[in-house]
């Protein structure tokens, strides 16, 4: 099942958190059935990594018109190209996807004083090499 993720790093982080919790409750076979196609809106470190691996991805989502359109703080007066057309074109041709491991790290946070209890927080992440 391909899932299109159109957004920035915070959306991907939220989605990954849900994915990791869901995969913990299901059998491991489900993990191989889902594919995420990441479409960046604005600067996105994982998308930049994918662009370095896949020239077609980089040409579609990291060319100057795309970066200019989604790097603005205010919307442009007109759409310089068809965003939907560009996304659909990429999705139709996205036969191969990059396998990036999704995992979760446990952070232990200590209280400000020795009397306070520590807490644990689970943070999902995507494993990439820089």
UniProtKB/TrEMBL annotation:
User: From which domain of life does this come?
Assistant: Eukaryota
Q: Pfam families from the entry?
A: Pacs-1 (PF10254)
Q: Where is the Phosphofurin acidic cluster sorting protein 1/2 C-terminal domain?
A: 3-128
Extract the GO molecular function terms from the UniProt entry.
Answer: transmembrane transporter binding
Q: Which GO terms describe its biological process?
A: protein localization to plasma membrane
Q: What is this protein called?
A: PACS1 protein
Q: State the organism of origin.
A: Rhinopomastus cyanomelas
């Amino acid at each position: 099942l391909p899932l299109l993720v159109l957004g920035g790093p915070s959306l991907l982080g939220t989605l990954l958190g849900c994915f990791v919790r869901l995969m913990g409750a299901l059998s491991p076979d489900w993990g191989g059935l889902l594919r995420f196609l990441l479409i960046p809106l604005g600067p996105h470190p994982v998308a930049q990594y994918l662009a370095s691996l896949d020239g077609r991805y980089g040409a579609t989502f990291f060319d100057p018109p795309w970066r200019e359109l989604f790097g603005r703080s205010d919307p442009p007066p007109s759409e310089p190209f068809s965003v939907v057309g560009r996304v659909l074109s990429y999705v139709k041709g996205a036969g191969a996807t990059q396998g990036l491991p999704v995992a979760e790290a446990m952070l232990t946070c200590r209280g400000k004083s020795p009397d306070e209890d520590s807490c644990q927080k689970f943070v999902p992440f995507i494993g990439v090499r820089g």
